[in-house]
Amino acid sequence: MVRILLFTGKGGVGKSTVAAGTAALAAAAGHRTLVLSTDPAHSLADAFGTPVGPEPTEVAERLFVQQVDAQLRFEQSWAEIQRYLLSVLDVVGVDPVAAEELTVIPGAEEVLALLEVRLHVLSGAWDVVVVDCAPTAETLRLLALPEALGWYMQRIFPTQQRVVKALRPVLTRAAGVPMPAGSVFEAVERLHGELDEVRRILAGPGASVRIVLTPENVVLAEARRSYTSLSLFGYRVDGVVANRVFPADDADAWRARWVEAQTGVLREVDQSFAGLPVWRSDYRAEEPVGVDTLRDLAGELYGDDDALARPSGDGPFRVDRTARGAVLHLSLPFVTRAEVGLARNGDELVLTVGSYRRLLTLPAGLSRFSVAGARVEGGELQVRFREPAPVQQEGLG
């Protein structure tokens, strides 16, 4: 099974450097390794100090680097849908230049860049795939999209397709607006299927996320929110990297104040992510560039730990059967019960944490149960389900 590691964090914390170093370490250990960037502001070429293109480029033995051409992936996956949208806007008189802008979904290029991960994992060409993700907020939006799109595909899409097929001749004559052809629906369905497969891969047992931060209060606050949100959507976080830590040895007065401030934040990091490894990387005298330097940085960072160790446990989501029903467990670190919105809608739970909402489709075995209560305990949401009482049938007298 391919080992997939995703690195994310607030912009400027050095996640590209850590991702590149981890990949260099994996290749040096004998693994066929690909490190790719889905961040529009590509930094991998700078980290390795060599030109890198939209296709995997070999920079060392068994080590390949790719900066995904998000625009190309967008054109390949969105072209059919965009052509239809442009035809509609043309009929209603929208300026062509404005129409081009209106048919581009904000953030779509970053989302579609993840399709490249799917292709590489399915290719069987790699032992390790390291992903340098976009900054935290963009990563969370893009990782949540496949599940959100799935809701529309399952409920609205089939109905819309039937209605349009039946009414296309009438609506086209009456409104003058072209109705979508079957190829448009096929393109949407194909895109959803690919994104849904990306989600299954990235939430699977071979994949995990590592949060990169610097010892600053603002950065730590965002890292904590990221941990909560990643868990909400079912992604495993298997470690935290504290980057650019000032060494305490021989510190002058100016650096001593930095060391003191960082030490306080690092204590909070250890407390916040208790149960996860927290790897530390010292602030270096010069920028780490090149395969050898990056490999050495990662070697010092992980020490005796296995940088490619697979995450253990059941992941952030599981269901336990009980004598009277079942309990759904979802990891939600740093969250109180008051911050969680919970509603039941048919065979779904609607979970709201802050600005993020997840529609969690219940396993088939739970869909007939009723919700008996919920609580947050030890950084975990526990939803209790009760099996309906058997219907008493009266005998015929």
Output the keywords.
2 domains, 8-stranded mixed β-sheet, Rossmann fold, 397 residues, 11 helices, Immunoglobulin-like, 4-stranded antiparallel β-sheet
* Sheet with most strands: 8 strands, mixed
Which stretches are poorly predicted, pLDDT < 50 over at least 5 residues?
159-164
CATH level 3 topology of the largest domain: Rossmann fold
Number of spatially distinct domains: 2
Please give the radius of gyration in angstroms.
Answer: 24 Å
C-alpha termini separation: 63 Å
User: Roughly what is the average pLDDT, rounded to an integer?
Assistant: 81
Helix content class: 40-55%
Order of helices and strands: EHEHEEHHHEHHHEHEHEHEEEEEEE
Q: What's the CATH class label of the largest domain?
A: Alpha Beta
Number of strands: 15
Provide the structure class.
Answer: alpha/beta
Q: Please state the overall shape, judged from the principal axes of the Cα atoms.
A: globular
Task: Give the helix tally.
Answer: 11
Approximate strand percentage? 15-25%
